[in-house]
Amino acid sequence: MTGSAEAEVEYHGSVGVVTLTGEVDIVQASQLRERLLGAVRNEDLGLVVDLTRASYIDSVGVSLLFELAEKLTERQLRLAVVLPDGGLVGRVLGIVNLGSVAEVHPSVDDALASIRAA
Amino acid sequence: MKSRITSERLQDLQSITDAALAYLPLEGLLDELLTRVIGIIGADTSAILLLEDDDTTLVPRAAKGLEEEVERGIRIPVGRGFAGRVAASRRPVRILNVAQADIYNPILREKGLASLLGVPLIVEGNVVGVWHVGTLTERAFDDEDVELLQRAADRAALAISSRLTERERGLADALQRSLMPRLPELPAVSLAGRYLPAAAERLGGDWYDAFSLQDGRLGMAIGDVVGRGFHAAAIMGQLRSGLRAYALDGAAPSDVLSRLSGLLRQLEPGRTATVIYLVVDPHGGGLVIASAGHPPPLVHKPGEEPRLLELPGSVPLGAARHARYEDVLMVLEPGSMLVLYTDGFIERRDESLDDSLQRLMTTVAEGEEDLEHLGDTLVDVLLPDGPGNDDAALLMARAMPLSEVLVARFPAEIESIPGLRRLLGRWLDEAGATRRDIDDLTLAAAEAAANAIEHAYGLAPGIVELHATTDDDTVTVEISDFGNWRPPRGTHRGRGLLLMEGLTDDVEVVRTGEGTTVELKRRIGDEEAA
Q: What ipTM was predicted for this assembly?
């Protein structure tokens, strides 16, 4: 029995939105990493990662988000993360202080608006 | 028949069974006998063939001048060709000219043998094999030759036969031991098995088996191949493997049995076997069972009388061309026990079947908690005089209530982590944890397990142990490894510890010479916890 995770990418103009579904964990990390890093195009302003449909994230998943933030910062792009109100994923990302490297928003629309406004 | 053997040759004959031979192992004994007979008779070749215990096939076991016969593993049907005729007629057979005779074994011609003489090896009126000598030039074996070889054969037969029985017993023990499985250790089901060989003939066709399936459920089987001896045991070994293979494919019990019946008919038409195969979910208790003509299993719910599980009537494996079996669904409730057995356990000469079954049920009802003890008691009560004429097998399973102490062991591999989380989640749910308690504790435990997997063992295989207990409203979860930690590398491992601390009330890491244990504590059941 293994968990499963999906990463769907959509582009809203010059911002990519990756929706992560399922369990963002040590078992799924390597395939998700490829999808996430591959979602950033050269001409983009930034990337939105929507975690409202993720049920689980562990330290390997967390590291993936930190790595993504670092790579985007190097290219002067911005990372915005959409988190549900409450729930395990929100608690985990609070404990590791994801806010120190990425913007955190309650909805994809808020995240998109924030990146475009900058 | 009046002996016409010269005194000189008669003296030689003594050498066939002299005391020095008594200490040789079977192979050495056969070699020595062959050499001596070649000398006495003045032949070029000599070979001993022994009858398989299905009584239909002769297999060359030792040869001089005809070594290829043994090396090639030739099998000669009784009644066919030269040696087959000797065994079937139980009389000496002489062949003057091999080229013109009915010969089954091509090696005899290939070696250029001209003449042959064969006699049966007989013990207590039963043919156990054939001994033949041959010459490269044509020779008319006379009556004295026949009598000499027959006398040698009579003297040797007993020694061969007893040596053979002894050796096959040794092999049988080894075979039977190697076929009895190491039962899986599961947190939710305890298992115990017993196998007792038959008293006289230590080979039988009974077996039991239990194994984990890929979806985390447990497969259990018990079976009885009709017949005895090495051959029945060998068929048993093949059926056991076949059952596991079909079961690991994920087939339903009824389907596993139909396929196994087809396999048995192919392996040996006419042979039958009775089998029960079942699949049980250790965490939910759901059970699917199918029987092929096997005695009904016994179910014992705590606080109730044990009862026999009525399963739909069915034919043994191998008995019908397209056998179909039926799945029965039931639930093995926490604390309930299932007892599978073969008829060797309940068939006694001095007692009716009903009386034996009653004794089985009474003993289970008085049941000891510990399955290993219960197994010993059942053997004592049901087979008080030791093994009977038939071998006997017993397999017991008890569904453990998960809510007490949880102990589970996993291979130290990343792929174990989701299963570990789910098992702990179910246990926490039964222990009264809230959704949030479960989420946080299972994640913390998964982090601890990932640490152990990545840092305790390097590339060598290892084990991660999960242990969980409750004390009032505090849960303690321990994740242990038995390796040597190297310091965690990389930032995500640092975050792992951060998460464990953030999601529980207390984290302790205890390192000893035997390994490392991470202890996680958390108060559970508080719905209002922010």
A: 0.91
Go through the domains of chain A in sequence order and give each one's CATH number.
5-117 (3.30.750.24)
Distance CA B469, CA A115 (A): 48
Asked whether residue B150 falls in the same domain as residue B186, the answer is: no
Kindly list the distances between the CA atom of residue B523 and the CA atoms of B390, B408, B476, B529, in Å, as whole numbers in the listed order. 56, 22, 9, 10
Quick: pLDDT tens for B486-522: 665 555 567 899 999 999 999 999 988 788 899 999 9
Q: Which positions in chain A touch B490 (Cβ < 8 Å)? A: 63
Q: Which of B172, B190, B225 is the last residue of a domain?
A: B172
Closest CA to B206 of B291, B258, B275: B275
pLDDT > 90: percent of chain B: 40
CB-CB contact of A96 with B496 (8 Å)? no
Q: Is the CB of residue A3 less than 8 Å away from at least one CB of chain B? A: yes
B446 contact residues in A (CB cutoff 8 A): 25-26, 58
Q: Is A17 on the interface with B (CB under 8 A)?
A: no
Is the pTM higher than 0.80? The answer reads: no
Please judge whether B414 and A26 are an interchain contact, meaning their C-beta atoms are less than 8 angstroms apart: yes
Which pLDDT does position B177 carry in this prediction?
67
Domain limits for position B515: 406-523
pLDDT digits 0-9 by tens, B104-126: 888 888 889 999 999 999 988 88
